Amino acid sequence: MESAKYWIEKLQLQKHPEGGWFKEIYRSDEVIPAVALPTGFSGSRNISTSIYYLLEGDDFSAFHRIKSDEIWHFYTGTSAIEIISVEEGKIKKQFLGDNPHENQCFQLIVPKNTWFAASLVNKHGFVLAGCTVSPGFHFDDFEMANQELIEQFPELEKEIVGLIRY
């Protein structure tokens, strides 16, 4: 099995603002006009986008949310990814990986407007995954969590605090 460093170099991944490494690999040429999108989008959006995403060691994808559904795909690695989301005021945990005996799935969906974060189950490992977003990702639709998320859900502070970037 190749290393995280191999994939970072081979796929020319760059640091992601939320943590980890990424590279956009697909952006649909077709566009959804703003008038056809749900309320809250600031303009037109590509129909779909996709990225490679790599986490390694104790790095994490900080709590954030976007205005579109996001599908996570497992490709390779030495660990599973734990995706933690806040849904209806409760923590939901899902595992992206290749071991169904450990309750891991090859694909997971994070619903639009859901606060979520991700980290490795094995902090000595890495995972190469993919993320597909539709309507397509745009940084205007991205919101990084801060202390206000803890204030909104004080009963979830223990689960949230270590997955926010200050």
Features:
14 strands, six-stranded mixed beta sheet, mainly beta, Jelly Rolls
SSE map:
Blueprint: H1 4-10, E1 14-15, E2 21-27, E3 31-32, E4 45-46, E5 49-56, E6 60-66, E7 69-77, E8 81-87, E9 90-96, E10 104-105, E11 107-110, E12 115-120, E13 126-134, E14 142-144, H2 147-152, H3 157-160
Parallel strand pairs: 9-10
Antiparallel strand pairs: 1-2, 2-5, 3-4, 5-13, 6-12, 6-14, 7-11, 7-13, 8-9, 8-12
**What would you say the CATH architecture is?**
Sandwich
* Share of β-strand residues: over 45%
| Overall geometric form | globular
Strand order of the largest sheet: 1-2-5-13-7-11
The fold-level CATH name is Jelly Rolls
Number of helices: 3
Number of distinct beta strands: 14
Radius of gyration: 16 Å
CATH superfamily: Jelly Rolls
Report how far apart the termini are: 34 Å
Helix content: 10-25%
What series of H and E elements makes up the topology? HEEEEEEEEEEEEEEHH
Query: Which class in CATH terms?
Result: Mainly Beta
- Taking pLDDT < 50 over at least 5 consecutive residues as the criterion, the unreliable ranges are none
Structural class: mainly beta
Largest sheet: 6 strands, antiparallel
